[in-house]
Amino acid sequence: MSYSPPSSAKPFTLNIPDQDIDEWRQLLKLSKLAPETWEGSHEDGRYGVTHKWLRETKDYWLNTYSWRSEEARINSFPNYRMAINGVDLHFVALFSEKQDAVPIQFLHGWPGSFIEFLPMLDNIRKQYPDAKTLPYHIIVPSLPGYPLSPRPTDREFTMEESSAVLNQLMVNLGFSKYIAQGGDVGSFNARLSAMNHDECVGIHLNMFTVREQPDMSRLNALEKTAIESARKWKETGSAYAQEHGTRPSTIGSVLSSNPLALLAWIGEKFLEWSDTTPDLDHILTNISLYWYTLSILTSFQPYRQLHGESSVHFAYISKPVGFSFFPYELFPGIKHVLEKGGNIATYEQHESGGHFAALEKPEWLWADVEKYVKEVWGKV
C-alpha cells in the first residue's frame, strides 16, 4: 500500500497579496542609501556590504527581479501546512510510494530558509523521477518562527520546543523513525531531536559545534585553511550573533521597518559566508520571504539561547552522526574533535564549499546524506 500524507497535512500554495508587494515596492523605492564612504568602498567586505553592491542590488530588486516568478518556482514543489503545538508549520515534501522508504528531514538555518534545499530537491527529482522509485520521504520544514512557520509570540519559545514541533511533524506524518539533517540553526535542532526524541534515530550535519579545540599538529593543509578562515570570521564578522542574542527586539524592529535594511543585514551574510556567492535571485527571494512574512525578529530566538541570557545543553550524541566538511564553514568540523561530541559514523571532506552547503554544493551534500543513510539505516 503506497504512502499518502494524513489529512492534517494541508496542501498550501504561496500567494503574497498584491498589496504587500506594492507596499514593499514603495518602501524600497523611498529607502535612502547611506552616503558613499571609505568604509563602504572595500570590495573585500571587511566593513560590511559595499555602497556599490547595495545600490546596484536595490535597483535590481526594484526593476528586474520578479517575485511572482520565484513564487511560481516555490509552488512547483508540493507545499503543506500542519498545525502543531501552536505553530502553523510549513513544509515541502517529496513523498515516496515505496513501503520501505527512509524518512529524512532537512533543517535550514539563519539567515536561510527552506528554499536553500530546493536545488537539492530538483536533483533528487531528476535522480528519482517517479515516486514509485524514490527510496526516501524528503521533508523540508520551515523552522518555527522563520518564513512561513509563525510560532507563538506571546511567550518565550525555546529551541527545545522548536525541536519538539519538528519531531512531532514526522510522527504526525506516520513515521516511527527518521533521520534529521541540518546546518547552522538546523544543526542545533537536529542535535536536540537526537537527544530528546526516540523517533530521530540518527543525524547528518554540515555544522557541528563543540567546545574542544583541534590538535593543530594533526591537521592537513585544507583543515588548517578552514581553521584560519573561521578564526578571521570570529574576530571580524560574528558581532551580529551577540546583537541577535542580547538585543533581538531592537535589531528585529530595525530590520522589520525597511526592506533596504533587511537587504544589507542578510545580504552581507550570503556574500561573506559562501565560498561561491549564491545567485542574486536566490538571495533576494530569501530576503523577500523574511520581509513578507514579518519573521525576522522571531527568527532570532535561537540566538538568545546560544549567545544570550538563556542556555541550551548539548550532550554527547550516541546515535550515529554523519558529517560533511566544507572548508569555508563558519565552524569547520575536524573529525578528531567531532568524535568528542558525537558517534561519528560517516565523515566526508570536500575541497570547497561554505556555510550554505545545501545551496552551494547540493550534489555533494546529497551524496553524503545518501552514503550516511546506506551506512546506518539498517542498524538503527
UniProtKB/TrEMBL annotation:
Asked if the Swiss-Prot or TrEMBL record annotates the protein with the keyword Hydrolase, the reply is yes
Q: Which family does it belong to?
A: Belongs to the peptidase S33 family.
Q: Which UniProt keywords apply?
A: Hydrolase
Query: Pfam family example for this protein?
Result: EHN
Question: What is annotated as the active site?
Answer: D184, Y303, H355
Source species: Didymella glomerata
Which PANTHER family does this UniProt record tie to the protein?
A: EPOXIDE HYDROLASE 1-RELATED (PTHR21661), HYDROLASE, PUTATIVE (AFU_ORTHOLOGUE AFUA_3G08960)-RELATED (PTHR21661:SF39)
**InterPro entries per the UniProt record, alphabetical:** AB_hydrolase_fold (IPR029058), Epox_hydrolase-like (IPR000639), Epoxide_hydro_N (IPR010497), Epoxide_hydrolase (IPR016292)
The protein's name:
Epoxide hydrolase N-terminal domain-containing protein
Which stretches make up the Epoxide hydrolase N-terminal domain?
10-117
Record field: transmembrane: none
Q: Name one GO molecular function term.
A: epoxide hydrolase activity
Q: Which GO terms describe its biological process?
A: epoxide metabolic process
